[in-house]
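Internal tracking record. Fields below are filled automatically when a chain is submitted to the structure queue. Please do not edit lines marked as system-generated. If the sequence contains nonstandard residues, flag them in the REMARKS field before resubmitting.
Queue: standard
Priority: normal
Entity type: single polypeptide chain
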Amino acid sequence: MPARKVPEMRAALLAAPGKPLEITDLEIQEPGPGEVKLRMAASGICRSDLSVTTGVLKSPCPVVLGHEGAGVVEALGEGVTELALGDRVVVSLSPACGDCIFCKEGAPNRCVQMVPGMIGSTMLDGTTRLSRGSEPVYQLCGVASFAEQAVVCARSCYVVDEEVPLERACLIGCGVLTGAGTVFNSPDIGPGKSLAVIGCGGVGLAAIQAARIEGVSQIIAIDIDPAKLELARELGAHHALDGREELRKPIRKLTGLGVHVAIEAIGSVQTLEAAWEMLRPGGLEIAVGMPRAGEKIAIRAGGLFLEKRLAGATYGGCDPRRDIPKLLQLVVSGEFRLDELVSDELPLDRAQEALEALAAGRGARQVIVHSH
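SYSTEM-GENERATED OUTPUT FOLLOWS
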């Protein structure tokens, strides 16, 4: 009997950093225990995807990019009971295992089971479900949503209400959850407080919407793109400042002493340092954007004795089991708007073009939409 042919599907493959994406056919295995196969509907394009193509973030190659994915369950691996065939789902980066030290400490955004995907671009068992001939192909973050199909951890999937298009729900998987989660999960952000958001891409605009929902008294958007600043105002910012100009004085003029919290959503050393300067005494800077791992920032030490604080936020400090359903409910109610975050919808074969638009700072979020 001839060997059973492994199914093939199209994907956008990165052969190595610095090379353009290649649209090619790949073999995809059936899901293993605790896994599901999805027919991908859409994938957001995140700056982390771009950073892998430039080498800022490291991944073994060849790799299929994409980790903001949404799709329909096509096959169930052994032991999967929480999902059913035909379920519409969005994929989280965290399996939220519930058993590791971080999950037990209430920090599933740092779940130990994220490590194989985040560092090795594999499934939880350290292997991949994709190949091209005899060559294994890696799955960025254990997802690989720049493809017509994906095999992912079942625990990372959350059912999406029929009222939410998958072409919008995909954004919740990373960018929206990171930006909104940073606000929802910070005790320093709320009514009576001031907040500056530096960078009004998908993450920053999600943070601004969450701040509006939380009743933050003064929301200041900062970007160099007038169109993004206009959109930030539409989504809840009270003030909009041009990031190319000196910021400390206008922020003092608006707030008196400086902001209670500054969220840096770009990953630039320059803006990380600028965020420190706009804080009031006792203020908090939250680094959400990711610079190169070895880069250093310089802050004035005197701020430490004004009780200024600097912290990072991993995946918005979220618990996906709590925060993804919360965000989906906010989308259904109309309180959180996803349509405005999408600048372009593009087919898979234009994935490279979408990455180039992101690199040029055009629009808030590009979405790859799969046609089946």
